[in-house]
Amino acid sequence: MARVRVERSSVNVADLWTRRAGIINSYPHIPGSDACGVLTEINGNSSIDIGSRVVINPALQPPAGQRSWTDAYRDIVEILGYNRAGTCAEYCDVPIENVFPAPSHLTLEEAAAIPLTFLTAWRMLVRRGAIQRGEYALIWGASGGLGTAGVVLANYLGAKVLATAGSDHDARLIEKLNPVGVIRYDHGDIASQVVKLIGRKVDLVFDSVAGSTWDQTLKSLRPGGRVVMAGTSAGDTATFDLSDVFYNQWALLGCRMGDEKDFEGMLESVTTGRLRPVVAKVYPLSRMEEAHKALEEGNIIGKIVVNNQE
Which one, out of 6, 14, 131, 179, has a CA that is 20 to 30 A from the CA of 150? Predict the structure, then answer.
């Protein structure tokens, strides 16, 4: 095991879901899946020195010899802040396998913003979506933590990104992430905007929205394209013609977080590409309620970070 003194954490939509869904079995409950801090104690062998700045992989798995599934993700048994004490605290105890050196080019706030959203986005794009250089990717919810991570990573991987926005303000900020174009929710039919902008439909849809937008997702997707979905913020249900799926040979792929290989791959991409997450605002730990409300209101671009030392 390892103990990390948490200097910064961040807020995710998963924290809101956990709070609302009634899945917390006992109180007090410590939320938070992301952390950047200092390694203060180690019980076991590690190549990381005490005193090093580290980030934590929020997905906890059993030892390799005890796993029963081919896909290691299926063996995730605990998630920080979900069914295990999270990172919105002064210290966090986790298996040493979940502790990694923080990318040196990132600030404390930036490093705390990457674990959950960049892990999920990396798995969506690489392991599930198999994005290829030069392919067009439509990214729903591009102003949120997962969406901005998707834009940053997809650009790094050589995809041509179309990012969605719902206002002039959001569009201006998203344009700073250098997508090929910004598609506006408030400018009518999404699929028509896509075709007008690039002359065809996209190869991959990066979707954390679903629900009421599902029809536009499928209308924007080329035959043989892929949809990778990791959220349903616009609703849990959608109606569509199943025959369109096999006729167009679409691949509909679910995704949720990732395993240790994904986390290692994500960190390598962030480090090699000197990638940076978008930090919207920093709150002291004493104002965690305000941080949750800000995320619920949704008028932000990127991640809300928490200073655990205040």
Answer: 6
